[in-house]
Design goal:
Helix content is 19%, strand content 41%. It is an alpha+beta fold and 154 residues long. It has an eight-stranded antiparallel beta barrel with strand order 1-2-3-4-5-6-7-8. The protein starts with a helix and ends in an 8-residue tail after the last helix. InterPro entries: DUF2147.
Length: 154
């Protein structure tokens, strides 16, 4: 009886996990995002299981082109929450306007909307903004590197 109950619970949990929306999966944060006022583009990618984001000179640019243009890393070290799909925590946010670093949290509110929350010390001492996805790209930088020499960057 316990065996059947345990099996039934596993089947239900497995179905629930498979039925998560695409935007709630671990790699769905990857891609190119426009900041709230569209003044910058950030490419989010995965490095050693954590998520980083670098400022791009244009929405079509690769990470290699961004590095060649000495673009800053805006997001670093974000970990996907195992308990809350679409939530990324424990990372750092760099504000290039004032050179300040913040602790941060990213929340994927929909497939094309990312809430970026930065704070100093205590999570209630902060503020948020929303970014809009402009392109979906692989989390892998190897795919990005394949196009590095093929784009036009002014």
């Amino acid at each position: 009886m316990c065996y059947r109950l345990a099996l039934a619970i596993l089947v239900v949990l497995g179905a629930a996990l498979r039925s998560q929306p695409v935007w709630a999966r671990d790699e769905s944060i990857c891609g190119v995002w426009a900041t709230s006022h569209g003044e910058a583009y950030i490419r989010i990618y995965r490095v050693d299981g954590l998520f980083d984001g670098i400022s791009l000179p244009s929405a079509e640019a690769s990470v290699a082109a961004a590095r060649a243009h000495h673009q800053p890393v805006i997001l670093s070290g974000f970990a996907a929450s195992p308990d809350h799909p679409g939530l990324y925590r424990y990372g750092r946010i760099f504000d290039p306007r004032n050179g300040q670093h913040f602790q941060g949290r990213l929340t994927l509110e929909s497939e094309d909307r990312l809430k970026v929350y930065g704070y100093l010390g205590f999570s209630w001492l902060g503020g948020s903004t929303h970014w809009r996805r402009v392109a979906t790209r692989s989390c892998s930088l190897s795919a990005d590197a394949a196009t590095a020499g093929k784009e036009h960057v002014p």
